[in-house]
Amino acid sequence: MVRRTRLDENIRPCEEVLASLSALYMACPDCPKEPGLDKSASFSSLEAEVERHRRCPSCGKAPLDLVMLETLKILVDHDLRSRSEDLRSVGWPLVGVGYPLSYPPRLGKRELIIVGENLTAKAAAEIVEGVPEVKGVIRGGGVPGVADLKAGPHRWELLAGSDLRCDVVESLLGEIVIYKHQSKIHVEFPRQSAPKMRILEELYFRGKMTTVADVLCGPGTLGLLAVLGGAKRVVLNDAWLPAVEDTILNLKANRSILGIEKIERPETPAGEVGAESVLAAEAVGENCKIEVYFGDAERLFSQAEPTDLCLVDPFPGMKFDRIVDACRVCGEVVIV
Ligand SMILES: [Zn+2]
To answer: What pLDDT score was predicted for residue 61?
Structure first.
C-alpha cells in the first residue's frame, strides 16, 4: 500500500531556517557582555561566575559559556566531574542549527545538544530541566552509525530531551538544511565536510550531475545537493535505518527548495541494519525523481537502475573496496 507522508512537526522547512539565520545566535543590543571564561580553568575557580552572569533581560538569550558552566555545576553536584575539571570536560556543545559562526553563540531556549562521556540519565534529566538552553543530552564516544555491517551499529545514547538538530549546508550548488537525530548519525563539522563539497562542486561544473547515486548517503547531504545541481534522477542508499529515516525527513524539510511535489513510501523497512535493497521512499518533482533505498550498498544496483555518476562517501575507518566494485555498473564512481 502506498502511504503519503505528512510534514513532521519538529522540523522547519529549509527556507524558514535560512531566513532565521542572520540573527539566530547574535547578541541583542541589551545583551550583557560576553563572559569570555577561561575554558581550561577549574570549576572551583569558575564557580562564582555562575552568579555573575545573567541571561539577557530583553532577548532572554544566554552566552554559551554560561550554559556550559551551569551544566558543569550539575555534573559536579552529581559527582560526575571533579571540582578540578574545566568547561571542556562537559563535552561537545552542538547548536540546534549548525552553520559556521565567527563569534560565540548566544543561545535561546532549547538550542543546544550536549554530547559527553561519563553521564547518567538522572544528571541529564536535571540538565534539560534546569538549563533552559539545553535541548538534549547524549552519552557518546566514538562515531555512531554502521561502519561495518557484520559488526553492527555503534550507538550513542540519548539520555534526556531530544537529539534532533540540523546543519545548514552551503555550496555553489545552493543551500539545504540537513536534519539528523544526532545520537544515531555521526557529527560532521563544516570544516570536515568542506573537501567533499569541493569535489561535488567540481563534478557539477564538469556537467556530471545527470543521474547520481549516493550509496552511503547518511542523512542525504550529497544526494540532495545533486538534486539542487540539476540531476534528473538521484538514488540514495544507506544500510542504517536511522540514516534512511533522516534522509526522508530531509526530503520533506527541503521539499520546496528541491521542487518535490510528492513523497511516497512504497515499502516499510524492517530491522535497523539493512541487507537486501528495499525502496523506502520515492520523491517526484517536475525536474527530478529521487529514490531512497535501505540496504547493503553492495546489493543496491541489483534493485536500482545504475546511474551515470556514483558517489561513495565512506564512513571513517570503513572498508569500501567491495562497495566500489559493486558500483562499477555505474558510469563513473567517485570516492568523496
Ligand atoms: Zn539580548
So the answer is: 97
Can you tell me the distance from the alpha carbon of 46 to that of 44, in angstroms, rounded to the nearest whole number? 6
What is the value of pTM for the model shown? 0.91
Q: How far, in Å, from the CA of 29 to the mean position of ligand 1?
A: 6
| 100 and 39 in a common domain | yes
Q: Tell me which residue range forms the domain holding 241.
A: 192-335
Please state the rounded mean pLDDT for residues 217-239: 96
As a whole number of angstroms, the distance between CA 264 and CA 255 comes to 13
Ligand 1 center to residue 103 CA distance, Å?
15
Q: Could you count the other beta carbons within 10 Å of the beta carbon of residue 37?
A: 19
CATH code (residue 278): 3.40.50.150
Question: Could you tell me the distance, in angstroms and rounded to a whole number, from the CA of residue 33 to the centre of ligand 1?
Answer: 10
End-to-end Cα spacing for the chain: 36
Please report whether residue 61 resides in a domain.
Answer: yes
pLDDT for position 93: 94
Residue whose C-alpha is closest to residue 10's, from 253, 313, 245: 253
Q: How far is the CA of 132 from the centre of ligand 1 (A)?
A: 15
pLDDT tens per residue, range 36-56:
999 999 999 999 988 888 899
Task: Quote the mean pLDDT of the chain.
Answer: 92
Structural domain contains residue 290: yes
Same domain, 240 and 147: no
For ligand 1, the distance from its centroid to the CA atom of residue 108, given in whole angstroms, is 10
- The single residue listed with the C-alpha cell 540546534 is 96
| Rounded CA separation 37/66 (Å) | 9
Q: What would the pLDDT profile of 244-276 be if each residue is shown by its tens digit?
A: 999 999 999 999 999 999 999 998 888 889 889
CA of 36 to the centre of ligand 1 (A): 16
Cell 570536515 appears where?
Answer: 192
Domain count for the chain, please give it.
2
User: Distance, CA 62 to ligand 1 centroid (Å)?
Assistant: 8
